[in-house]
Automatic annotation (TrEMBL):
Coiled coil, from the record: none
Keyword Calcium: no
Keyword Transmembrane recorded: yes
Protein name: General secretion pathway protein J
Localization: Membrane
Example of a GO cellular component annotation carried by this entry: membrane
Length: 222
């Protein structure tokens, strides 16, 4: 092989080697790009799964919260038993005096409070109560109740009571209705027939992230 042909052969081999190196670099770049895309897809899938799991957990907790609320409203004490209104509503708060069966013993009373505090939806309850004095003391010292947080990041809580023919969130209206009932009840039970009393409750909350609204309407014990 002449020197000229040898130089051409070496030059061709060099070009082939350089072209192969470029191919390798391109392949590496493509693999890196695919890896990044796969990682982003996997990360998005994991985040979506975490969001779904978190949302389901919050929904389950809220369902239990509403179920407990309905149980409490259906077991609400009568105004005669506590000598006044068995429920009270305030901004971000609902208080109910309810019956509490403890084993085979006599039915006792309990004060339960539903409240929104520091963006947390909380249910708290007193110990079993046997006397009106205990009921009144518990109603004045509710901050010491044991509580359970049902949900975080709650932005608002609203409670309305059905007083035919309208919904109201005015505690004074509710208290006056029970006071009139007790006055008539002292005269005779027949005089209380058909008197307007709270018959239902509408409980609604709104959450921040994800933004959602939940509303539950339920009857009150008669």
């Amino acid at each position: 092989m002449s020197h000229a042909n040898l130089r051409k052969h070496r030059s061709r081999r060099a070009r082939q080697s350089a072209f192969t190196l470029i191919e390798m670099l391109v392949a590496i770049a493509l693999l890196a790009l695919v890896a990044v895309l796969c990682w982003r897809g996997l990360d998005a899938t994991i985040r979506t799964r975490e969001d779904v799991v978190g949302h389901l957990a919050r929904t389950r907790n809220l369902a239990r919260y509403f179920s407990q609320l309905q149980f409490d409203t259906l077991n609400m004490a009568t105004p005669q038993e506590i000598g006044g209104a068995p429920l009270r509503i305030r901004p971000n708060e609902l208080v109910i005096a309810r019956h509490l069966g403890v084993g085979a013993g006599p039915t006792r009373l309990q004060i339960v409070r539903y409240q929104l505090k520091n963006h947390q939806l909380i249910r708290s309850a007193s110990a079993p109560l046997s006397t009106l004095t205990e009921v009144k003391d518990a109603a004045q010292n509710m901050d010491g109740f044991a509580g359970v947080v049902a949900m975080d990041d709650v932005r608002s809580m609203n409670v309305f009571v059905w007083m035919a023919p309208v919904w109201t969130d005015q505690q004074q209206v509710i208290a006056n209705a029970y006071a009139r009932f007790l006055t008539q009840y002292a005269v005779g039970t027949n005089s209380t027939v058909g008197m307007p009393l709270p018959r239902g409750i509408r409980f609604s909350i709104s959450t921040g992230s994800p933004a959602a609204a939940f509303v539950r309407t339920m009857p009150l014990a008669q």
